[in-house]
Structures are given as C-alpha cells and as structure tokens.
C-alpha cells in the first residue's frame, strides 16, 4: 500500500498560502489543515480566559486546557474550541494582535505540533497542511514541501483586499508579524532545505495551484 500524499506549504502572511492550500486540497481530493487557525484558536482561548499574553508561564499552564478541534474539509474549513465555533472571532483584530505572543511559547508549540501530527496521521486520503514550520519541523517526511513567497507590497495588497482594510496599515501589521514570527526562538519561520520555493508575486491563484499540482504529478 502506498502511503497517503502529504503536502506541506509554508510561507509568510499574505503569500497566498491559505487560498492555494485549500484549492490544491480540493483539486486533489485531499484533506486540509490550517495550522495558523490552531494558533489563533489558542490565542482566542487565552483571551477568553483573561490570561495575560505577556506572561509566557501563564500561557504555558493554561494551554493544556484548550480543546482545539480543527475541521479538515477544504470546502468548509473551521475550528472549534471545545463546543464553541471560533472560526469567525479568530480572524478579528484582537486575536491577530495577540497571536505572535502565544505562538512563541514553546509549550503551546509542542502541544499544537502533536495535535497537527495526529490530524495528519488520521487523514487516510492524504492532506495539505499549511503554516510556518510544517516542512522543517512538523512533517519533515512530507511527500512535497513548498515555500510560498511574494513581495511585501503584493502580500499587503492581497491581505487588505481580503479583509477590506487599508493597504498601508495592513503592510505595517504584516511587517511587524513577519518580524516576530521570523525572530522568535521557538521554531521561527524558516524554509526547509528540501522545499520548492514558489514566488507568487506575479502569479494568480490558479497559476500557483496548477504549478503545485504539476510538482505533485512529477513525484
Ligand atoms: O497564517 P496565520 O496568519 O493565520 O497565522 C497566525 C499566526 O500563527 C502567525 O502570526 C504565526 C503563527 N503560526 C505559527 O507560528 N506556526 C504555524 N505553523 C502557523 C502559524
């Protein structure tokens, strides 16, 4: 029996990761895991419990209580914390402003990485997992590793259009989150050595998806 196809897609915010990963999963009939939504759900939980996000020890001790349940259907992605559907609130400004502090806590990463590996192992039809450390850390044996990039301007324009926000403000927010995500001690955003780099600055969504599917077919 051949093992299921596992595709790891990493890259910074606004590189097109989520749209690309979902579309690739849909076209290939695979499951889809948005690991950023898990760090966002953990951040929502901490804020709901009034945990001080400047206190990594408090975050570490509360993290075990969070029951984080992502949906892996690429046509209906979403996430629950226990019985509560937090798919909408995790996209709000409050969670976005806190997520880098929560995702920098090693205990949070250890818990969520274990959970991510469990979800991937359970996906018998194969899966596309997207995030910041999937290829280098979470799934070093993935069938294919992609690192998506795009110029900072292109990323800001895309994110602002997605969220109906100002481009300048979005650019500043992205730059500060990229810096926090790339310089943290625990598992910073880095490219896996064996990743295929895809620069999406001058490509539309379908071109990126087609390119990745061509890479999959040549495996
Ligand atoms: O992709 P996103 O913007 O939804 O991710 C939210 C945050 O979660 C981002 O600032 C970095 C963090 N993250 C991470 O540290 N590791 C991952 N695998 C995915 C996201």
Describe this structure as you would to a colleague.
The chain is 50% helix and 15% strand. The protein is of the alpha/beta class and 219 residues long. It has one domain (6-217): Rossmann fold, CATH 3.40.50.300. Helix 1 crosses helix 9 (205-217), helix 2 (35-48) packs across helix 4 and helix 3 (56-63) runs parallel beside helix 5. The longest helix is centred in the middle third of the chain and has 17 residues, at 106-122. The protein binds 2'-deoxycytidine-5'-monophosphate.
Q: What is the CATH topology descriptor? A: Rossmann fold
Straight-line N-to-C gap = 17 Å
Strand order, main sheet: write it out.
2-6-1-7-8
| Unreliable parts | none
Query: Can you name the CATH architecture?
Result: 3-Layer(aba) Sandwich
CATH class: Alpha Beta
Number of strands: 8
Strand content: 5-15%
Give the assembly state of these chains. single chain
